[in-house]
Design goal:
mainly alpha, 4 helices
Amino acid sequence: QDVTVEDDDFFDKAIEGFVMFALNQGEVCTCPSRALVHEKIYDRFIERALKRVEAIVQGDPLDPATMIGAQASSEQLQKILSYFDIGRQEGAEVL
């Protein structure tokens, strides 16, 4: 059997890696820019990944509960937002 279907621990680790690679604020030079998810597990994977993203606490970086803080500059924020525009222009769906 496929380990991604049968092993929930493996599945959870895959989701954690998928969610966090996109939220490292550019601090990992080898960070991937996409993930390939087999169609057999896609719906389950995306459902769980979106729940994990929704659990991320944004806020004051001095608050211990905060998991992701502000961007370094307004220029960096605009650069990030431009990636959403590029994705939409290329046919992507923003989840």
